From TrEMBL:
Signal peptide: none annotated. It is found in: Cell membrane. It comes from Streptomyces ureilyticus. Pfam families: AA_permease_2. Residues 477-497 are annotated as: Disordered. The chain crosses the membrane at residues 21-42, 48-72, 93-117, 137-160, 167-189, 201-223, 249-268, 288-310, 346-366, 372-389, 401-426, 432-454. It comes from the Bacteria. This is APC family permease. Keywords: Cell membrane, Membrane, Transmembrane, Transmembrane helix. It is a multi-pass membrane protein. Gene3D superfamilies: Amino acid/polyamine transporter I (1.20.1740.10).
Amino acid sequence: MTERAVEKRQLLKVLRWWDGFAIALCNPGFLVAALGFSIGALGTWSAVALWAASAGIGLLQSWIYAEMACMFPDKPGGISLYAHEGWRARFSLIGPLAAFGYWIGWSVVLSVFGKVIGDLVQARWFPHTTWTVFDGVVHVGLSHIIAIGCIVLVWLVNVFGIRPAVWISYVTGGGLMVPLAAIMIAPYFTGDWHLSNMAWGLHGFAGIKLAMVYLFLCAWSAYTSEVCATFAPEYLDTRRDTSKAMRSSAAFTLGVFLLFPLGLGGATGVPDAGSAEGQFYIPALTKIAGSGMADVMLVLLIGSLLLSMISSTADASRALYGIARDDMTIRQLFHLNKHHVPSRAMTVDMVVNVLLVLFVSSNLAILYLSNIGYVLSHVFALSGFLLLRRDRPGWPRPIKVGTAWVVIAAVLMVFNAVLVGFGVAYPSLTGYGTWTDLIIGVGVLLGSVLLFAYRRIVQDGARITLREPVALLPSPEQMAPLGAGGGSGDANEPYTR
């Protein structure tokens, strides 16, 4: 058996819960990117209801994930690592499936939002720039070049450490509050909000199918407060900061996902099909704030999308680092640079997303293919919670939710599994999902199993076992990131593996 590589550098404990909240301010950007399509397909009232319902589910899940985050405080990578811990004694392949499903869901934010930024910039300031270069699949134009530039920019921001990324998150997150307030509150005082713009577009069984498919898609945006769990080993007080970050961000997300679609829908009505990918914000902001302020708020809105890209790079790269650390993919990704961040994983994200911009034609086709794995990772994480309650009752739980949450977790697990079923069965109902996108999404999951096999057989010289032995109690080193009394520690103290 080959000697296992050990990463000498470690993630630093430098974050507080409000830093996690700032990172999770990426969540409104997810809504901004997909809201136009959903209003166009569902109607205004229907979109408000589905976005709010999905964010409510995300809030419930955050309570559950807070327990698992403090059960495994040494694990970067978020909910997919908790799924692995819950399932590894029963079926070890769930780990890589959950991990890569989670990673691709976060990683493709770069290409989706980069392209939305490109579309907004071109529509507002370069509307007559129509040149394109055909690469054999996509007609690459100015918006694509802007998207690639944004992807490279957020890579540069993240590779220099978590602190620069967090400070930029504060700046862009603060700027985000202006257009959020303008759209959520101002229309009621300016007289731009009209009940006549609100319509319910879901009727009969066809409406139920459409609602379930869009709830499947909304999960990509509304469940994302779980991002705070990815940074659990990096909080100064892992127990307290993780819980506060997750729950405060989930509550904020629920408020925004209710009030933002309501304010925008009541002010603008259903957007034209041709402007649904984001450009409809330009006339909406002009109507609400006037032409003088529209450009300012558009810049702030673009800043919020950059924030989402920065947070997504930080999260997705830690997911890859975490699964390599737990022997589920190639060991080369188990690496931190001199700034104590997983720069190799960030580079993988950058390259993958540049390729998606160049060779996948639709923003939301990218979203669809990634969402299969992302929602599945929640199914595996929630079922992992149930298995951990059964298989490891004596494991320390610095945060332990009540017995009722076991029932809630089971219901949410089944519900998310049903959403995956609807998403896979009816891709065309989205208007942009195709069977090709489905095949690509499933291919990513199958690729994760191949990389898992390569790591175990080739790199580690071991054999694949479908049921792995697990300890019933953690070692002191595993719980060390909690610190004395639950997690306090020196700001520059690395967590102990």
